[in-house]
Amino acid sequence: MSANGNGVGPLLEVEGLVVRYPVQRGVTGAAMRREKQFVHAVSGVSFSVSRGEMVALVGESGCGKTTTAQAVLQLIRSQEGSVRFDGIDVTALGARELRRLRRRMQIIYQDPYESLDPRFRVESTVAEALVVHHEGTRRDRRERVAQALELAGLTPPELYLNRYPHELSGGQRQRVAIAASLALGPELLVADEPVSMLDVSVRAGILTILDTLRDSGLAVLMITHDLSTAARFADRICVMYLGRIVEEGPAVQVVEDPQHPYTKALLSVVPRRDPRRRVQPQILRGETPNPIDVPPGCRFHPRCPVAIAECRATDPELRAPVGAAEEHRAACILAGR
Amino acid sequence: MAGRLLEVENLHVWFDLPQHRELHAVQGVSFAVDRGERLGLVGESGSGKTTTILALMGLLPPTASVAGKVYVDGEDVLARGERTVASYRWKDLAMVFQGAMNAFNPVRRIGDQLVEPMELHGIASGQTARKRAGELLERVGIPAARLRNYPHEFSGGMRQRAAIAMALACDPKLLLADEPTTALDVMVQAQILELLVALTNDLGLALVLVTHDLPVVAQTCTSAAVMYAGEIVEAGPMDALYHDPEHPYTRLLFAATPDLESRDVVVSIPGAPPRLDQAIVGCPFQPRCDRAVARCLAERPSLRRMGDDHDAACHLAGVGAGEVVA
User: Fold this and answer.
1) Does A246 contact chain B (CB < 8 Å)?
2) A208 within domain boundaries
3) Rounded average pLDDT over A203-215
4) Residue A270: helix, strand or coil by DSSP?
């Protein structure tokens, strides 16, 4: 098939991804020939995810992390750039080919109270994807549903097959959602804030499932606003700000030795468990600028505590600071200086 | 008893369910808050933390019945029902609700909405009230000129600040904040927590911070009460709760919380909390506990004093903890 079909190289390669939405001008706006505006949700994002790797896209709301995930699955169409899945550029595919490919890439959503159909029993929910893709006989499907439930930690599966979502706790619902996404045996799983709606005591269980699946070769792209979770579970972290990745690297390095001033500020305000461990929070004033009017130069410079004049003119590239490891990169002209 | 700003004694709340059943949401909660103190009320969903503070505010629905004593400045607020509660609500105790940033009336200016509670409670009216509304807005870090704005012209963080300003309108002594930062980004969360801490330091305001987020409490509050199945299972100085937890639930809850700087394995707590529409026999945490012994099945533990202001409701607290863990 492709150069990457044998599992060498990343499973998912995103390059220069751009997603923008037109802003509605309204009838008067169009009549007055007001200039067409765009929301620049994702403006040139590149990253990759290998088999057996968990990559976390981290950032605040509006930074473009969820849009990036949706563009990876082509649930929304991107305007520029490429998304190569196992060597195939999915942005060039038609609806039919895309559908065939989608069984290899699945998504789980944030809210298990919304994502499950309340009228479907667990068995029908998990089997639905198999039915849609005409997989197996009824008996095969039953077998695969049971396997998927076990992978998601719902054991013994017979106990859950005939239940409705309202009979399950939040953690169990999210496990059903995971089982449903695993039924087709995907190679890439996109998890959009998979635990943020759940109680703390059950979060680790869900994350451990993803961890275990990753060990068996699944590629996981996790979208999260929670740096502590990303630090503990992801192999690599990409920090996003206003539609760009501003820092990328191995999770431990990004957390322990951040290079971008935004990452540094973000890490400083994450509350620590230990009350004795007080970090002087470096609170950025104001809020993330509107993605319609992206600041010129470095898009972080209006809020940056260390910005110099040059930052207003130069849009920095994501690069490894001089003397640092190649896999740890930051989009800041001052990084490593 | 004297001198404490708020004292809650053996508070119970029941909700009526269909078919003459009852849900015992709060099962004998006691705690106290002093002026300028910051107390965290921590628990997972269904633990009764929000119900507890709604009971203090007298804001529970008619299906709820309340028992126990709530003293504000030594006076029993619950004693004569709605009449006494109403005279304290907003003036002595004020509350910031979960999702308060979405609670503003979208078609009225922020200023008008800030003036309303002042006029309603006879604190100020007319130009005086407007001037005070401007000062309140400035106090929470928003220019007074923005009184003329509508809620949609504010960001989420600014609306949450405005909600705090509104709670401060009648100059309360105690602020009850229910998950004030849950829907906010971490940078905005840091701004709001910084504001809450500043208000307690500068105005002597006391704060009860209700949240499921232990690290937020660890970094904001001096002491905390951990709730489980409608009761406080452990309470004490924040430092003692983290470094010397006496209740297994507290210890496991910290262990279930990932931390930026720790490589510890993050654990999950198996099982689920007990149903509160049935009587609980023994320790409510026993089915999920990693240390339970025979006594935990039969006898419900009550809060015992373990150290300076440190209480725990566990039969094993203080005895042989080391051996059992090892």
Assistant:
1) no
2) yes
3) 93
4) coil
Helix ranges, B155-247 (H): 156-167, 186-203, 214-220, 238-243
Residue B268 forms contact with A (CB below 8 Å):
yes
Nearest-neighbour CA in chain B from A151: distance (Å) = 17
Give the closest-approach CA distance of A203 to chain B in angstroms. Answer: 7
The answer, for A202 touching chain B at a CB cutoff of 8 Å, is yes
In order of A175, A294, B163, B184, B187, the CA distances from B157 in angstroms are 33, 20, 10, 7, 10
What are the helix and strand counts (H, E) for chain A? 12, 11
Q: Is residue A145 part of a domain?
A: no
DSSP B135: H
Q: Chain B residue with minimal CA distance to A231?
A: B260
CATH of the domain at A272: 3.40.50.300
Instruction: Report CB contact under 8 Å: A269, B272.
Output: no
For A227, the closest chain B residue by CA position comes to: B260
Cβ-contact A277, B261 below 8 angstroms: yes
C-beta atoms of B260 and A287 within 8 A: no
The minimum CA-CA distance between A205 and chain B, rounded to whole Å, is: 5
The candidate with the shortest Cα–Cα distance to A252, out of A320, A193, A328, is A328
What residues form DSSP beta bridges with B176? B95, B208
A8 pLDDT band, cuts 50/70/90, is low
**ipTM exceeds 0.90:** no
Q: Does residue A253 lie within any of the structural domains? A: yes
Confidence check: pLDDT of A304 > 60: yes
In this prediction, residue B167 has a pLDDT band, given cuts at 50, 70 and 90, of very high
Considering chain A, what percentage of its residues have pLDDT values greater than 70?
Answer: 98
In this predicted model, what pLDDT tens digit does every residue of B171-219 receive, in sequence order?
999 999 999 998 888 999 999 999 999 999 999 999 999 999 999 999 9
Mutate to test the interface with B, among A111, A200, A242 (most CBs of B within 10 A): A200
Residue A112 lies in a domain: no
pLDDT in tens, B89-148: 888 999 999 887 788 999 999 999 999 989 988 889 899 999 999 999 999 999 999 999
- pLDDT tier at A32, thresholds 50, 70, 90: confident
Residues A90, A87: Cα–Cα separation, whole Å: 9
Is residue A226 over pLDDT 80? Answer: yes
CB contact under 8 A, A283 and B187: yes
From the list A222, A213, A219, the residue with the least C-alpha distance to A179 is A213
Contact B187 A205 (CB under 8 A): no
Instruction: Count how many domains chain A has.
Output: 1
Q: Please, which residues 125-164 of chain A have a Cβ atom closer than 8 Å to chain B?
A: none
Contacts of A61 in chain B (CB under 8 A): 185
Q: Which residues of A touch B194 (CB under 8 A)?
A: 281, 283
What per-residue confidence (pLDDT) applies to A122?
95
Contact check, Cβ <8 Å, B267/A204: yes
Query: How near does any CA of chain B get to the CA of A239, in Å?
Result: 14
Average pLDDT over residues B25-51: 95
Structural domain harbouring A51: 12-104+186-330
Helices vs strands, H then E, count in chain B = 11, 12
